[in-house]
Write a structure and sequence with these properties.
Layout (H helix, E strand, L loop, with lengths): L1 H28 L6 H4 L4 H10 L6 H15 L13 H36 L4 H15 L2 H15 L11 H31 L2 H8 L4 H13 L1 H4 L2 H10 L2 H6 L5 H10 L3 H29 L1 H8 L1
Helix pairs in contact: 1-15, 5-6, 5-8, 5-12, 5-15, 6-8, 7-8, 8-10, 12-15, 14-15, 15-16
InterPro entries: BPD_transp_1_N, MetI-like, MetI-like_sf
GO cellular component, one term: plasma membrane
Family: Belongs to the binding-protein-dependent transport system permease family.
């Protein structure tokens, strides 16, 4: 186990370094002035001072070394070009809780509803509940979240006046963004759970349990759920990482003050430190979530652990 953890930790560091390096190089390879949005009307000497302050007058490799040194030694993600005096660390601390709250609600909603619909479809395979779930799955996978968001805004706010159109401040403001984000998750988990549960229901031990007189509830909770849910756990890692990446467009549509909306505005303003810092933050979240999923896999299905030991 120690060897496994050390190996994964090394791969984690290597992956993070590759992500940082590629993002750094790609941003600086793009044409344009990174201080154009803040220094357009400034005198030439003031612009020169800004370039010296942020180290933009130095060669690219030297800028990279300075950035990596600050990141490794002080966990310093730099200072925003567009918002002078504001560090990237402060931006992430302030904006990420909003995105995390919205993303977590959407994932929990998608996970619970998706698993429930998948089990219902497996139990009623070949009947109308099965067809309805598969239709919703196809709809959720093919229709983008921002299209659903626009439809929800039009019908549930403009027509029916049930929820606020934009903004953030309570449960009412969270309903439409969470539904828009969770629809794809519901479709994905529903489809995978239907396939996995259908396979489990055809196993011999399920027939044995039925022959012994095990109730449908007991069979579902003790046999079907435990064995059918294992493959769906694999998708949990990317879903956790999408707490932030998946909310980028939705936050812009609903004017939610989260890190996603901030990230999009910083891309248009070429705010390099914020783009780099947000990318590093999401990359670390993704890698850690995948590791947690591997551990959960062993806990839920001990056969994985036994296979590994053999």
């Amino acid at each position: 186990m120690l060897k496994f953890i050390v190996k994964r930790f090394f791969y984690m560091l290597l992956t993070i370094w590759v992500v940082i390096t590629l993002t750094f190089c790609l941003m600086h390879a793009a044409k344009g002035d990174p201080l154009a949005s803040v220094g357009r009307r400034l005198p030439a000497q003031t612009r020169k001072n800004l370039y010296q302050k942020y180290g933009l007058d130095k060669p690219l490799f030297q800028q990279y070394i300075i950035y990596m040194k600050g990141l490794v030694t002080r966990l310093d993600l730099g200072e925003s070009y567009v918002y002078p005096g504001t560090t990237v660390n402060d931006i992430i601390k302030k904006q990420s809780p909003v995105s995390a709250q919205l993303g977590m609600v959407s994932i929990i909603l998608g996970l619970v509803v998706g698993l429930a619909l998948g089990i219902i479809a497996a139990l009623k395979k070949g009947h109308w509940p099965d067809y309805l779930v598969m239709f919703l799955a196809i709809l959720g996978i093919t229709v983008p979240s921002f299209v659903l968001a626009a439809l929800f805004q039009y019908y549930l706010t403009v027509k029916l006046h049930m929820f606020p159109t934009t903004g953030w401040g309570g449960i009412k403001y969270m309903v439409l963004p969470a539904l828009s984000l969770s629809f794809a998750t519901i479709a994905t988990y529903g489809r995978f759970m239907r396939s996995s549960a259908s396979e489990v229901l055809n196993q011999d031990y399920i027939l044995t349990a039925k022959a012994k007189g095990v109730s449908n509830t007991g069979m579902l909770t003790h046999h079907v759920m435990r064995n059918a849910i294992t493959p769906t756990i694999t998708m949990l890692g990317p879903q956790i990482a999408s707490i932030f990446t998946g909310t980028f467009v939705i936050e812009s549509v609903f004017s939610i003050p989260g890190i996603g909306r901030y990230f999009i505005s910083c891309i248009s303003n070429r705010d390099y430190p914020v783009i780099l810092g947000t990318t590093i933050f999401v990359a670390i979240l993704y890698i850690v979530s995948v590791f947690v999923v591997d551990v959960l896999y062993v806990i839920i299905d001990p056969r994985v652990k036994l296979a590994g030991s053999k």
